Amino acid sequence: MNHNDPTNKTDDIVKYLAGEATPAEAMALEDWLIDPANAEEFEHVYQLWQRLPGAPVLLTPAVDGEWQELQERLRAGSKPSLLRRIGPRMAVAASIGLLVIATVGWWLSARQVAAPSPNALTEQQATGADNSKQITMPDGSAITLHHNSAIQYAGAFGTTHRHLQLQGEAFFEVVPDSTRPFTIRIADVTIKVVGTAFNVKDITPSGNIEVQVLSGVVNMITDQQQISVRKGQSGTYDASRKSLRLSDTVDINSMSYATHSFEFDNVPLREVYASLGKTFNRQFRFEDPATGDCRVTARFDQRSLEYILQIIDATLNLHSSQQGNTIVITGVGCPAH
Fold this sequence. Notes:
Blueprint: H1 6-17, H2 23-33, H3 36-50, H4 61-75, H5 81-84, H6 88-107, E1 123-126, E2 133-136, E3 142-145, E4 150-153, E5 162-167, E6 169-173, E7 182-186, E8 189-193, E9 197-203, E10 208-215, E11 217-221, E12 226-230, E13 234-238, E14 243-247, H7 256-259, E15 261-268, H8 269-280, E16 283-286, E17 295-301, H9 305-316, E18 318-323, E19 326-331
Parallel strand pairs: 5-7, 16-19
Antiparallel strand pairs: 1-4, 2-3, 3-6, 4-5, 6-9, 7-8, 8-11, 9-10, 10-13, 11-12, 13-14, 15-17, 18-19
């Protein structure tokens, strides 16, 4: 994708709107729009559209002049099939429609993402304090809702749009669809993606919002700012400062409630059990609190809680027993280190 040639960029936009862009091309276009200079380029095209009449039946001389300028921007290189198949008169009408969508859907995306009205969000999925839930959305995207969380969405989800509201925490595996970006509204933040896997968490009581990305690219958007969060990165919305920040780390264990993958590198045992408790909805109690200082280095993928506890017990010379919803840890403790 040429970031410097405005003609090629116009072609890229038309290709996207014609449904011919790949998910990678669509995400690259969003990245391109972050640059203020590129936003100005959209403004220029937007102004051209504003001077075109609303009913493109006749081509008056004034309209011809505006159409000529638009044609020059689209002439270089091969055009997407949408423009190859129509003549100038219909192309004016098509350009009006395309530029409206481009302006509203992309150029203004950093300011406001179109979404159904709150009254239209008639569908809801929720979890309580003791359970999580796996949901397959109408478009095929998979969502794992963590404890005390909920999503709301319209009945038309997956047909005309893919927008939902989130409270709490959820892990998303979004099916790619460049014509209908997947958007999530949580507090003051809109999260916009094409296809990716990521976790969204409302951090209480601070009200901060955290997004951790395992694959693809996620855009976090507020009224004042927008950042792109890529694979292996985290984005955080600071509610007190109303600002977004980016970091180059993700906490695999914080998403284990959905992925059932754990990675511990010289981590205190109490932190290991905190991650296990979040995933398997268990409480842990040490008979000797000092045992919580034992260090663990291990990785577990798609293993049962019983298996993980057996490995830890054998490694650290401990014994785990379940009493109701609580796992009690006893034993002589870990070797001195």
